[in-house]
Amino acid sequence: PARLILPMQQHIGAPADPLVKVGDRVLKGQLIAEPIGRVSAAIHAPTSGIVSDIAAYPIPHASGLSGECIVIEPDGQEQWVEHQGLEDFTTLAPLELIELIRRSGIAGMGGAGFPTDVKLHLGEDHIVNTLIINAAECEPYITADDMLMRERADEVVGGIRVIAHLIRPSHILIGIEDNKPNAIHALETALKGCELNIDIVVVPTKYPSGGERQLIKLLTNIEVPSGRIPADVGILCQNIGTTAAIYRAVHFGEPLISRVVTVTGDAVRHPQNLETLIGTPLSTLLETCDLRPEALSKLVMGGPMMGVVVQDDQIPVIKTSNCLIAATAEEMPEAPPAQPCIRCGMCEQACPAELLPQQLFWFAKGREFDKARHHNLFDCIECGACAYVCPSNIPLVQYYRFAKSEIRTEEAEQRKANHARERFEARQARLEQEVAEKEAKRKARAEEAARAQRERAETVPKAEPATAVSAPSAPAAVDSKQLKTAAAVARTKLKKALDALKNAEEKGLDGVDALRTTVAELERKAQQAQQAFEAAEQNAPAAAPAIDLKQLKVAAAVARTKLKKAQDALKNAEEKGLDGADTLRATVAELEQKAQQAQQAFEAAEQNAPAAAAPTIDLKPLKTAAAVARTKLKKAQDALKNAEEKGLDGADTLRATVAELGQKAQRAQQAFETAEQSGGAATPSPAATTAPSAASPHAPSQPEPAADLKTLKQQVSIMRTKLKKAESSLAECTDEAQKAALELEVAELHQRHATAAAAFEQAEQAQQAAAAQQGVDLKQLKIDAALARAAVTKAERALQKTQSDDERTSLEQTLAEARNRAEQLTATLERYE
């Protein structure tokens, strides 16, 4: 032909994906579109030439719509791509042989177009005992399979051998109609000396005995249940054309690029069977068979019963095209108008699937699709026998196709709705869980705050009762802060009253006298509050401020941090030649001085500090530490068990980790139990109790317990959140009294946040230093552990998406290795955390 039009959808399932672009030169047999998904088929170039277009063209479909196609202009050279067949296909593994058939793009050539590799790739739950080769022509007029058996019976038998090698059936039946004596003789000749258990069964020529389920019933007297496939009853059915295509693919390495097509009808002078390249326009076939255009009334692609009437002779031949009928008006007259159903029941008698066509017609017409489905609508093979015998000329098949399409559309919409509902419910559950977790955390914080407040109240010493001979009781200690707040509140109230009085006087409102009285009273109270505050401030004894060693230590750490950041900024500016280097040098000098002063203040206070009282042990962190240690131990034990069961590497390392974590868990539990028995009071160690009361100043001090980085990080986050909330409240506050109180709160939170941040940074540096002493880069170890966990997640997602058994096996191995590495790195990381 002058050009070839290759639709991407020539089969049941997903359309193929083009691999070429316009202007590419392709060779005969070259893969030009690859299959997408499990149910799909490849497309190959039927001849060598140039790709001239990739666009939407009319395709052979009942809808009359267009589809994506690749257009090739042949160059006449018929240059093949490099290909080679198998010398002995029995040496190839079944999965590899099925993959070869998949790469060859072979689909069922009897009409349905189901990808052959999917049909041959049976699971363990399907055992095929009987292989049926469908050699019965599906409809009248069609003789393509008859001619193929006559001319190429050896190829048909060769393809049967390949299929038998894959599915290992105990019995093979070739069902052929009795109007094909030459084909029967050719098959009998080809089967002489064949080692397979093959029987040729001749059946009466009666439409539609070529249908898959009808032929199975006719040959084996077994009926395939509704909604099931033949493999469920141990039977596999293949078409004659498909077996020949499998033979060419396996023995010669040729993909499916051509097929035999019957060109017939009274409008052509020379009806015949032609071996046609896939993609050949119908006009080329009609010209070859000498079409009489003046006699052409209807062009049918397929048989007279199930074929599709096409209006465009440029529609191409595809893999499922077996016949083209150029009919005259006398041969296929127009259907008369449909009349009302008279309920004669002739359609039910003609139905080969033993359905109730009349009832299905009423359900489809009334859009009662659920009832139609329950009456096994999808068992209808759309053979048209019911419409052919209908005396009312009702196009029954069209109603059935409409009902099937509507049901499939409803099912697709329902799947989308179910998916959306599941996502919505999952989101609602996630939000509810987050709200519950936040509420639980809020309650925990409230309980912790209440507990801390009770502890502070209990630690305040009670005043000793005065005796009769004691000096007169001293006046109660005056709280200057409280008096200052009271004075601010009094001023605010006075200001509001003055504003109200001014507004009333300007607008001439009632109650001005009452407002003047209120203003006078508030002026007096504000004056008294201010005088009380000033008196208390003047008479307050100068108390030596208490030295807070922890605060001084944190201040020194903060000063060092600021100095380091300034030094890094100066170094960066000097290296890159940025402006402002002189300013940064001055800042660094100033921060060095401040850091030195802060360190000196801390060291002086540390030397002069009195002996601290025995601290009180907080049982909660000890209990938490013990629980965390037990959790880490359990994870390490599970990882060791998994490694031992699967024989993975690293089991010895995991055993050492389990032993070390077991010791840590035991020590943490003993520390908690000891503190719990002592009632929370810090008890000296045995060495301290036996030492003399005046300890040597050179005795080594006990090491501080390792800081919990997670707890410190949470404290920094909590302080930051509280600080932001307080700053936001301060920005929105308009009340002077409340604003003064909020300013004090913000200043205090700033200090607490800086203290927490410095403690976290110091603990993190100490942890990294301890790990570095053992030759471990803790930062890199955390990165490796995170990457290992990400690899596990990636492998799990890939395993969920794959549909290939080979890929699944490989991904399962990859997932096991990724999990083992992640568990080892996590266990190692937990040792240092």
Biggest sheet overview? 5 strands, mixed
Q: How many distinct helices?
A: 24
* Count of β-strands: 16
User: How much helix, percentage-wise, in residues?
Assistant: 40-55%
Q: Which structural class should the secondary elements be placed in? A: alpha/beta
Cα Rg: 45 Å
The best one-word shape is elongated
Flag low-confidence runs.
461-477, 611-615, 682-707
- Strand portion, in percent? 5-15%
- Please list the strands of the largest sheet in the order they lie side by side: 13-12-16-14-15
Let me know the average pLDDT. Answer: 83
Distance between the termini: 75 Å
**What is the multimeric organization of the chains shown?**
single chain
Task: Please provide a written account of the structure.
The strands form 4 sheets. The protein has a 5-stranded mixed β-sheet with strand order 13-12-16-14-15, sandwiched between helices. It is elongated, with a radius of gyration of 45 Å. The protein is α/β, with parallel strands linked by helices and about 850 residues long. Mean pLDDT is about 85; it is low at about 460-475, about 610-615 and about 680-705. About 55% of the residues lie in helices and about 10% in strands.
Features:
elongated, 10% strand, 54% helix, single chain, alpha/beta
Topology of this protein?
Elements (H helix, E strand, L loop, with lengths): L3 E4 L9 E2 L6 E2 L4 E4 L8 E2 L4 E10 L7 E9 L19 H10 L12 H5 L9 E5 L9 H8 L1 H15 L3 E7 L3 H10 L7 E6 L8 H9 L14 E5 H13 L5 E7 L7 E6 L4 H7 L9 E4 L6 E3 L12 E5 L18 H5 L6 H9 L3 H6 L10 H5 L6 H64 L20 H28 L4 H28 L9 H28 L4 H28 L10 H28 L4 H27 L8 H5 L18 H24 L3 H38 L4 H24 L3 H28 L1
Parallel strand pairs: 8-9, 8-11, 9-10, 12-16
Antiparallel strand pairs: 1-7, 2-4, 3-6, 4-5, 6-7, 12-13, 14-15, 14-16
Helix pairs in contact: 3-5, 4-5, 4-7, 10-13, 14-15, 14-22, 16-17, 16-22, 18-19, 18-24, 19-24, 21-22, 23-24
